[in-house]
Amino acid sequence: MAPLSDSPAAFPPVPLTLEGSSLLHQFFRFNWTAWRACPAEHRAQIGSRAVAALKSMERNSADAPTRTGLYSQLGHKGDLIFVHFRESFEALNQAELELAQTELYDFLELRHSYVSVVELGLYESTRKTYEAASAKGFATHSPEWQAEVDASLQRGAEAMKTRLFPAVPESKYLCFYPMDRKRGEEKNWYSVPFAERQRMMHLHGLIGRRYGDVVKQIISGSIGMDDWEWGVDLFAEDPVVFKKLIYEMRFDEVSAVYALFGQFFLGIRLPVEKLGGWLEGRL
Predict the structure, then answer these.
(1) Cα separation of 80 and 70, whole Å?
(2) Alpha carbons 88 and 94: distance in angstroms, whole number
(3) Mean pLDDT of 174-198
(4) Is the entire prediction scored with pTM above 0.90?
(5) For the segment 200-217, what is each residue's pLDDT rounded down to a tens digit?
(6) H or E segment at 145?
(7) Domains of the chain
(8) Which among 125, 143, 145, 208 is least buried, having the fewest CB atoms inside 10 angstroms?
(9) What does the alpha-carbon distance between residue 262 and residue 4 come to, in Å, rounded to a whole number?
(10) What is the sign, positive or negative, of the torsion defined by CA atoms of 95, 51, 280, 238?
(11) What is the DSSP letter of 92?
């Protein structure tokens, strides 16, 4: 059997991916009118209880990685952003339920949410994996071929474990947005040959790597989970770098020709212990 590189028709069009942490973004409007109507003593009690509850959600222990991040949101779309990283969707649902049990939740109106899972796209290694399976004489999608692919994915998952199961970065600013690849009549990412997509994604990735020392980027897949195909989280100490990175990527072929973007959400990190001050109008 010829290697896949010499047999394009046999080359599966789907790039391999690795999946890790389950993610939930929650965007809330805070009912300031109802909050101000509460007696000051009651507000203080609600705030202190919320801090205690959120601290347990934030970390399992004092030295554990951050798994829930709280942000004060800028603009008219909302007031607070919760970003939850968990090991499963069941754990995400538990985080939702725990938050809903707090008295503070009575003042929160959920305006938007997003469900996804950390995803590492393997355009660079997919072709090598498929060709290795083909070179051994395995028919595409045969049990032997699939076992070869699974072994490759297992090795990759072990090597990239820290990227697949990250902590919520401690950076001061968060930018989140969802995105799709175009599937229109004139431009359809999913009808582009694999090798061409691989070339474009390589060049696209080089831009992100140039910003690697100032921006932490976490890509999550959401096909079949939410309304867009991917969610993008950017974390940085300077929010202007979000503009510079995304603007530069707009000139890249992948974004310029094949990308569609949803709403953008910007937040400032709000340490849980400072929530009481935020509730009284101090960031």
Answers:
(1) 7
(2) 10
(3) 95
(4) yes
(5) 999 999 999 999 999 999
(6) helix 143-159
(7) 21-118+269-279 (3.30.70.1030)
(8) 143
(9) 36
(10) negative
(11) H
> CB of 161 within 8 A of CB of 38?
no
Instruction: Please state at what angle helix 194-210 crosses helix 123-135, rounded to 10 degrees.
Output: 140
Which residues carry out catalysis? 177
Structure confidence at residue 4 (pLDDT)? 41
Listed residue (116, 96, 92) closest to 28, CA to CA: 96
Residue 134 Ramachandran class (φ > 0 left, ψ -120 to 50 alpha, else beta): alpha
* Full 3-state SS string of 35-48: HHHCCHHHHHHHHH
Q: Residue 7 has what pLDDT?
A: 52
Give 109-122 pLDDT, tens digit per residue: 999 999 999 999 99
φ, ψ of residue 111 to 5 degrees: the values are -100, -25
Bridge partners, residue 181, by sequence: 259
Q: What letter represents residue 219's amino acid?
A: I
